Structure prediction request, 139 residues.
Amino acid sequence: MAETKTGLRQVQSLLATFAALSAADLILVKTILGIITTGNGRSYLSNDGFYYLHIENEIPAGIVNGVITTFTLAYLIKSATEQVFLNGVLQKQGVGNDYTIDIPLGSGSRIVFNAAPLIGSKITVAYKGVIAGSGGSGD
Prediction:
């Protein structure tokens, strides 16, 4: 019984410490411990000296108006991890296929469709987003 109370106090102390952390520090701690999973389909994981977000069902920024072909994601894509869906149908990446990936400096990756999605179309993307790294290419 005494061990249970001690364990409970340790957990309460740890929770109090976490509560005092900034949001960014808390994410870093949870990332390092590998314990983060949120309700929006994102989970943090580590691989090859980089930290990645596993992102599901992101709706990229951009206006779906039948004219615009470029849509921006929140993070840089780890090479070859993306799945792009247009109206629920998996699209094929590559020149001459459905879309290509553009990675500008200082922002998230961009999806460039070879044909503009029609008005009312729904674009969703699943991918590993690079959030921090200490070396390597991210692949």
Observations:
- The longest strand covers residues 123-133.
- Confidence is low (pLDDT under 50) at residues 34-41, 134-139.
